[in-house]
Specification:
By secondary structure, the chain is mainly alpha-helical. About 70% of the residues lie in helices and about 5% in strands. It has a 3-stranded antiparallel sheet with strand order 4-1-5. Helix 8 crosses helix 9. The mean pLDDT is about 75.
Length: about 425
C-alpha cells in the first residue's frame, strides 16, 4: 500500500485528487472540534460515555458527539438512512425498478430519497440530544437570554446542519477525490478516536511507578492482540469461493464468440460490518432511549433491562451473536440474487460444469453462498465479542471503544478499498500513456 501511495504522488492528476481529499477531510475534522454554543461539552461527554450506542457513534465521529461539536452527528444519519432505503428498495416494487433498471436517473432518485431520510433521522436525533440531555444539565440556557425554546431550537438547527454538511463533504470526496467519501469520513473519525485513546495510555505511562509499568505491559499486550486481529481481518477479507462458469462457442455473423471461462467470486465476508451494525443498533437502541428520556432511572423495568440485557451482560453477548448470524444471512440474500445471476449466465450462453442451467444453477449457487456466509457470519460474531473481551481482560478501557470490532473492520476494509482504487487510477494512467 505504501508503494502504491508513493507511485500515486508521482502522477499529477492522482496527486491533486489525493490533496483535495486531504483538504476536505481536514475541513471535516475541523467541524468535529468546533463547539456549539449552548451545549455543556463536559456534561454531554459523561452522558455519551455511559451509553454504549452513543459511545460507538462518538468514536466513529472522532469524539465529536461527546464534545458537542458542529458535526457531532457525523455520518450516522446518512448511514442509517442508507440502510433503511436499501431495505425498502428490496420491498417496494417501484424502488426495485429504480435500483435495477433506472440507470443514472434511478440512482439519483434513490440518492435523493436517502438524503431526505438522513435529514429526518438527523432531526430526530438532534431533538433527542437537545431535549433529553438538556434536561440532564448538558445545555447552557444562558444562551438567547435564558429562553429554553430558542436555545434548544438553535442546538437542533446546528446539529441538523452539521449532519447535512457531512453528507455534502462525503459526496464531494467521492466526486473529486479518491475513494468513497462516507467511508473515508468514518475512517478518519475512528483513527482520531484511536489516537486519543493511545495518547491517554501514554499519559498513564508518564506518571511513573507501578502505574507506568502496568500501562506499558497493557499497551504491549494490546498492540500484539491488535496486530493479530488486523492480520485475521485482512486474511478473511480476501477469502472467497470462485465458481467457474464455462461459455459455449457461438457463431454470430462471421465471428466466433465464447469458448472461454470466467469465475463468480463469492466472498467469505461479503457483508462487511453491516450485520454488526444492525445487531448492535437493535440491541442498544432501547438503552439509548432510556438514557435520553429517563437518564437517572435505575429501578423497575429500565433497571432490569440495563442489568440483564444491557451492554456487558452475558445475555447481550448471546443475543449479539445470534443477531449477527441472522442479519448476515438476511443481508446476503438482499445483495446476492442467485436467480438473477443464473438467468444472466443462461442468457449469455454460460453454464456451470455438471449443473443444468436455470433453477438448478440458482439452487447450486444458493447452497454455496449459504455455506460461505456461515463462515463469514461466525467470523463476524467472533470479531464482535472476542476482541472486546480480550481488551477488557488486559485493562485497556480507554482503547476499547476506539478499537471496537466495528471500528477495526471499517478501518481495514476502507484501507484495502482505497488501495484498490489508487491502483485502478494508476492503471488508467498507464493505459493512457501507452495509447498516446
Amino acid at each position: 500500500m505504501f508503494k502504491t501511495l508513493a507511485d500515486a504522488f508521482k502522477i499529477k492528476e492522482v496527486r491533486n485528487k489525493i490533496l483535495l481529499t486531504l483538504v476536505l477531510l481536514f475541513v471535516y475534522r475541523l467541524g468535529c472540534w468546533l463547539p456549539i454554543p449552548g451545549i455543556d461539552a463536559e456534561a454531554l461527554g459523561v452522558k455519551v460515555e455511559g451509553n454504549t450506542f452513543l459511545n460507538l457513534l462518538s468514536s466513529v465521529s472522532g469524539g465529536a458527539l461527546a464534545q458537542g461539536a458542529f458535526l457531532a452527528l457525523g455520518v450516522s444519519p446518512y448511514i442509517t438512512s442508507s440502510i433503511i432505503i436499501q431495505l425498502l428498495s428490496a420491498v417496494i416494487p417501484s424502488w426495485q425498478v429504480l435500483a435495477k433498471e433506472g440507470g443514472a436517473d434511478g440512482r439519483k432518485k434513490i440518492s435523493n430519497y436517502t438524503k431526505i431520510a438522513a435529514l429526518i433521522i438527523a432531526l430526530a436525533q438532534s431533538i433527542g440530544i437537545a431535549v433529553g440531555f438538556g434536561t440532564a444539565g448538558s445545555t447552557h440556557l444562558s444562551v438567547f437570554g435564558g429562553n429554553e425554546f430558542l436555545c434548544y431550537a438553535f442546538i437542533v438547527l446546528m446539529l441538523v446542519s452539521g449532519a447535512m454538511v457531512t453528507v455534502w463533504l462525503g459526496e464531494k470526496i467521492t466526486e473529486i477525490g479518491v475513494g468513497n467519501g462516507m467511508s473515508l469520513l468514518i475512517f478518519v473519525g475512528i483513527l482520531s478516536s484511536a489516537g486519543t485513546g493511545i495518547m491517554n495510555n501514554f499519559t498513564g505511562i508518564g506518571k511513573g511507578g507501578e502505574t507506568a509499568q502496568t500501562a506499558i505491559w497493557q499497551f504491549i499486550l494490546f498492540a500484539i492482540i491488535l496486530v493479530a486481529i488486523f492480520a485475521l481481518v485482512v486474511f478473511v477479507d480476501g477469502g472467497e469461493r470462485r465458481v467457474t462458469v464455462q461459455y459455449a462457442k457461438q457463431m454470430k455473423g462471421r465471428k466466433m464468440y465464447g469458448g472461454q471461462a470466467s469465475n463468480i467470486p463469492i466472498r467469505v465476508n461479503a457483508n462487511g460490518v453491516m450485520p454488526i451494525i444492525f445487531a448492535s443498533a437493535l440491541l442498544t437502541f432501547p438503552q439509548m432511549l432510556f438514557s435520553i428520556f429517563w437518564p437517572n432511572t435505575t429501578t423497575g423495568f429500565i433497571g432490569w433491562w440495563n442489568k440483564w440485557i444491557g451492554a456487558g451482560s452475558w445475555v447481550y453477548a448471546v443475543l449479539m451473536a445470534l443477531l449477527i448470524l441472522a442479519f448476515a444471512y438476511f443481508w446476503t440474500m438482499m445483495q446476492f440474487d442467485t436467480d438473477d445471476i443464473s438467468r444472466r449466465i443462461q442468457q449469455n450462453g454460460g453454464f456451470i460444469a455438471g449443473i443444468r442451467p436455470g433453477k438448478p444453477t440458482a439452487q447450486y449457487l444458493s447452497a454455496i453462498n449459504k455455506r460461505v456466509t456461515l463462515f463469514g457470519a461466525i467470523f463476524l460474531a467472533f470479531m464482535a465479542l472476542i476482541p472486546t473481551l480480550l481488551f477488557t481482560a488486559i485493562g485497556t478501557g480507554a482503547l476499547n471503544s476506539a478499537f471496537s470490532a466495528t471500528g477495526m473492520l471499517i478501518v481495514v476494509s476502507v484501507a484495502l478499498e482505497l488501495d484498490k482504487q489508487l491502483e485502478a487510477q494508476l492503471m488508467i494512467k498507464n493505459y493512457r500513456g501507452f495509447l498516446k
